[in-house]
Every structure is written in structure tokens, then in C-alpha cells.
Amino acid sequence: MSDLLSIGASGVRAYQTALTAVGENIANVGTDGYSRRSVTMQEISPAAGLAANKVSAGSGVMVLGIARATDVYASAAVRSATADLSRTTTGVTWLNRIEGTMTGDQVQTRLTAFFTAARTLSAEPTSTALRATMLETARSTATAFSATDSAFDQINADFDGQARQAAHDLSSLATSLVRVNEGLGRTQPGTAAAAQLTDQRDQILTKMSALSDITSTTDELGRATVRLGDRAGPILAATDSTGSVTYQRGADGGVSFHVALQGQISDFVPSGGAMAGMLDGAERINATRGAFNQVAKNFVETVNGLQAGGQDLTGATGTAMFGLTAGTAQMSLLLTDGSKIAAAKGNQGSRNADNLAALETARGSVGFEGKLTQIVTDNATTLKQRQTVADAQSAIRDGAKASLSAASGVTLDSEAVTLMRFQQAYSATSRVIQAARETFQSILELR
Questions:
Q1: Alpha carbon 21 to chain centroid, angstroms
Q2: Mean of pLDDT values over 205-219
Q3: What's phi and psi for 397, nearest 5 deg?
Q4: pTM metric for this prediction
Q5: Which of 167, 229, 376, 389 is the most buried (most CB within 10 A)?
Q6: Closest to 191 measured CA to CA, from 350, 6, 21, 407
Q7: What value, to the nearest 5°, has the Cα angle with vertex 295 and ends 300 and 312?
């Protein structure tokens, strides 16, 4: 009877653990990052050798451990798809900022108004009112160029802040991963605690992949070693050490990320994640700003050059109309009197407007407005392409997450069936204990 009691007791303990695991699954059906858990059982081996009893039916069941459902390939696919999507969406964010900057202050509209005012003045070059109008449009144009240049400064300031935050977040995730590794090293494998720590590990890895493409390997205890990029990339986190990521902007406007680990600093060029999207955005910002600054420079040089080669309303040689800070589009209006506009060619009289005609010719040959339009159009085209790619990558990411969920997620229908099966098993083993007790009591009552 003692064998029957021990068998029943082992079954009760085992199925109680199994029911607990099923209850945990059901309770966490909506928990993001939770992986389904199951109980692995094994028959208790009967005594062997001389101690073996040929009439023994067995010794019951034992719980080997808590098994965590997982699929390493599906997890890797989710991380890869997350990195690709995050890179594209981050790039889209900065392309949107560029578009808003280039169109927000209406540079092209105000530039067109300036040339229109010059053409109108050429019909009546001695008109004080028309000269005042052209001077006002010149002031508006300079203000628009300067405001756009300041907007680019703000973009760079915001970019630097977000890039530093991304580097800090990735470093913090690496620190958290090392702590989880330490926990896994101290936790018995096959326990609920080990499963929980492994869930945390995978969630950290997914968050890392949203910031940068990573390559992860695990040891027999589940502790992860993470490299940035491919398997040849710098180590960010290991079983017992963690690195830090830093961001830097160079004097030329170029940006870069670096990894420091145990006194060694390595350059790091991400090819996925938000940080890769930031590098794409920085390149686009610098290229767009460079093209915009060149339009401002060409415009100022053209107008000031024509001013220097013409005569104003008083017959004096024209002076510079605009000032421009070198290397920027910070523009200022130098003229304060409309009579200083050099409408005439040299020695042609105040009613001559050949210099204004030359300005109109330069407008068509240099194509100031067309170049601004091209900058905006190129950015809009790239933005549209990236948005299309993001839609496709989003579908790929969702598909990868669905595959992972199918492999490791909780399905209530399946858990309900398992719950009923373990309930019946638990009740049956309880009946075994009851039968053993009743039989034992009957034996004791024999006279």
C-alpha cells in the first residue's frame, strides 16, 4: 500500500505543477513577450539490481522541469524584420522633417515674388513705389532663406538629441541583458524562474534590434552574447561584461556611433534599426542643406554681381543688395533705400532697365526656383519610396511575429483542453491515494 500511496502522491504533485503551468499560460495570454510553458514529466525508475521487486508495478511520476516554448529561427526573423522596419520608419521621420523645413517658410514663393517685382520695376525703373516693393520682396526673400537655415539648425539639434538618446538606450539595454545573464547563471535550468528570465532576455534582444541590427548567440544556460551588426561586429554585451555606445557629430557635419568595451573603442556603422535610419537621415539632411546653401550662395552672388555692374537711381555704381554668412543660408538685406537698386547698365540713364533685364535672364539660366523645386521633389520622391518600403516591411514583420506566436504563444483553446486533461489526471491520482488509504484502513481493521 505504501507503493500505491507514493505513486498517487507523485501524481498529485506532478499534476498540481502541470495545472499551475497551464494557469500561468492562461493568465498571461495577453502578456507581450510571454512564451508558453509546459511541464516535462518522466516515470520514476523502479529499483534495479538486487533491490528490484518483480511484482512492483512502478514508482510513479516525477517532474523534470518547466519547458519554455520557443523557436530560435522565428525569433531571429522577428528581430531582423524589426531592425529593417525601424531603419526605414526612422528615415521617413527625417525625410518628413526635411520636407517641412524646405516648404514651411515658402522660400520659392518669396523668391518668385522678388523676381516678379524686379520685372515689374523694369517697365518703370524710376518709380519710387515699385522700387520700395522690390526692396520689400528682397527683405522677405532674405528672411525666408534665413528662417529655413535656422530650421535646419533645429533639425540638427533635434537629431543630435535623439541620436544620443538612442545610444544611451542601447547601452542601457546591454546593461539589463548582462543582469539577466547573471540571473540565468544563478538559476536552475528548467524552472519557472529560468523561463521568466529567458522571456526577459528575448524581449531585451527585440528592443535592441529596434535600435540596431544585432547578432546574438547563447550558451547552455541561455546567457546571450550580443554583437552589433554581423558575427564580426563589436561585442556590446557578453555573459559578464557590457559595453557602451556613444554618438558623435564631426566638424564637417558627419555623424558616427562608437562602441567602448573594456577600454577598447570600435567604430560602428549599423545597417539596421533606428540608428541606421538616423545615419540615412543625417546624410540626407546634410545633402539637402548643402544644395539649399548653394542656391542661396548663387542667388546672392548673382544679384550682388549685377548690382556692382549697374547704376542706381542717382547714377552711382550699385552696391551689394544681400549679405550672406559663409557656409550657411543666413541672408540679410543690406540696402535700406529703394533708390539704391541698380536697375540701369552703366551710363545708360535712370530710365534704363537693362540690369533688371539681365537679372531676369540670370533667373532663367541659373534656375534658382527650379533648383529649389528639384530639392523638394527629390526629397518627396525618396519619402514616397521609403513609405512604400515601410508598408512592405511592416507586413513582413507582422508575418514574422505571427509565426513566432504560433510557435511560442498561448492559445486559449489548446490550454482549455490541456487544463481539462490535467484536471482529470489530478482527480484520478487523488482517487488512487483514497483507494490506498481505504485499503490500508481495511487491513488495519482485520482481527
A1: 35
A2: 95
A3: -65, -45
A4: 0.87
A5: 167
A6: 21
A7: 20
Q: Please give the helix or strand (H or E) that residue 322 lies within, else none.
A: strand 322-324
Q: Give the residue from 278, 347, 281, 282 showing the smallest Cα distance to 310.
A: 347
Q: Which residues pair with 246 in a beta bridge?
A: 258
152 C-beta neighbours (distance < 10 Å), count: 21
pLDDT one-digit tens code per residue, 128-165: 999 999 999 999 999 999 999 999 999 999 999 999 99
| Residue in the block written with cell 538685406 | 333
Class of residue 112 by CB neighbours under 10 A (exposed 0-12, middle 13-18, buried 19+): middle
At residue 7 the predicted structure's pLDDT band, cuts being 50, 70 and 90, is confident
Distances (CA, A) of 60 to 10, 14, 203: 6, 10, 38
What distance in Å separates the CA atoms of residue 199 and residue 206, rounded to the nearest whole number? 11
* Per-residue model confidence as pLDDT tens digits over 81-104: 999 999 999 999 999 999 999 999
Of 165-174, 296-305, 346-355, the poorest mean pLDDT is in 346-355
Residues contacting 28, CB < 8 A, separation 6+: 34, 410
Is 200:191 a contact under the CB 8 Å cutoff?
Answer: no
- Model pLDDT, residue 267: 87
- Helices 368-408 and 354-366: crossing angle in degrees, nearest 10, is 30
Which distant-in-sequence residues (6+ apart) come within 8 Å of 225 by Cβ?
Answer: 216, 217, 218, 219, 235, 237, 238, 239
Q: Helix 368-408 crosses helix 72-104 at what angle (to 10 degrees)?
A: 160
Reading the block at residue 389, the C-alpha cell is: 518600403
User: CB–CB of 406/73 below 8 Å?
Assistant: no
Say yes or no to pLDDT of 2 above 60: no
* Residue 45 grid coordinates: 525508475
Instruction: Give Dmax (Cα) for the chain.
Output: 145
87 or 50, which is more confident: 87
Cα-flanking dihedrals φ and ψ of residue 303, to 5°?
Answer: -65, -45
Neighbour tally for 425: CB within 10 Å: 17
- Phi, psi (degrees; rounded to nearest 5) at 274: -60, -35
Q: What is the DSSP string of 340-356?
A: G---EETTS-TT--HHH
Please determine, for residue 433, whether its predicted confidence score (pLDDT) is greater than 60. yes
Q: Kindly tell me if the per-residue pLDDT of 432 is higher than 90.
A: no
